[in-house]
């Protein structure tokens, strides 16, 4: 299959129609290149707060609720685009108020048959905890699709190996991200590449890029798209199937051979995924040695 992952820049929006046109252009471009799976980044939906004006977009709490209030229209738009262009789409994540508690960070996943589901972020960064007060959402999910089994680890989640291991049956793990600094981008990228190594699968990282002085939440963003596999048989020696240009908006594409994933899992030079459980008795018996 062909995968497209976004380095996505936010725009100031003067109308809902402008947002519809933007998303249609992005999706049609990727579908026109033959992409069957499209991945948008974490918090890419924050540009919707501009539809309520500068005062709302610039206020952290009000912008969260302004975006959440538009999510039904966002879901309808993405569902239509996925069906029209016959693609799977992981939409940009958004803060979503779902019940009486605090908002969660949610990425919705759309299929070409009109079906949809979502994945919530599991572990919050310090900014999400201390400034946004974003709450952990529902459990991890494994999406069984016509393309294969697909999991989602939103940004910081990709840096935790036990979350990745919970998705060990996934052929692909999608990693939508939003990172302010180059160091943050590399933390998530290293996490994504590590999960590809451990699970002997393909990980697909998307990034928010660009500066937005109208927002307190997503004012500066650094990153690019990247598609990674295990550095083993059937994959590049670096593990990098494709990577974009840092901070340059656009799609990054890669062809993903599902048979290569099955092959490396059964007959790779190493078998990290199979040998995972051999860690347990060894870490349980750590001893202290004085030197």
UniProtKB/TrEMBL annotation:
Its EC number is 3.5.1.100. It holds the Pfam family CN_hydrolase. One of its GO terms (molecular function) is hydrolase activity. It is an enzyme of class 3 (hydrolase). Residues 1-258 form the CN hydrolase domain. Keywords: Hydrolase. This is (R)-stereoselective amidase. It comes from Ruegeria atlantica. The gene is ramA_3.
